[in-house]
Amino acid sequence: MPTLTIDEREVTVPEGTTILEAARSMGIAVPTLCWYPKLPIVGNCRICLVSVEGTPKLVASCAAQAADDQKVTTESHAAVQNRKAVLGMLLERYPVEEIPADGARNEFEQYVRRYDVPTEKRSPPGLRTGDEREGEPLSQHDSSTCILCTRCVPAGAVVQAGAAPDPGVRRARWGRKGRASAAKSAARSQWRRTGWISAAMPRVSGIRNR
Prior knowledge:
Elements: E1 3-6, E2 9-12, H1 19-25, E3 49-52, E4 59-60, E5 71-73, H2 77-91, H3 107-114, E6 139-141, H4 152-159, H5 181-194, H6 196-199, E7 207-209
Parallel strand pairs: 1-5
Antiparallel strand pairs: 1-2, 3-4, 3-5, 6-7
């Protein structure tokens, strides 16, 4: 079992454990947007990047495995600047005026507050709009607040056998009123069988449980 140091604290973890998992086992909250337990690792949000001594570039902690004698810094200057840059870029097409002045409504907004990212828009590209398809009966997807973390895509593919919005087609609204209650009940049963109801996936941004 590898023993490594994270933020000047030593930890021993089972083989195959990622740096992110090792950090979270120590109570270190490395931020993530695309990563979630029970979902495949995609590593595309890039805010979980951390510094590893001896490695010239930042490392995706969700995908990199812990190794013996690693020295990891989760809040290095480079890691923090990277997170601020990514969050700032995502804010360009986000309704910043709806972010509560004294709080946050979802994980994304929590990270914006945590890293003190300015919410003034530098350009007006507009909110995402588009698709009006029906979808999975338990959640609603609103592309006006979508940050393209893509967490909903593997969630739909793994849990609901393909019932996920296409990130290339905007504003897919899931769970319209009037859908048969039997469909909702069946979906809930499937989520319970797979452990997703108990896991209680938190809202990232643009998607919420119904």
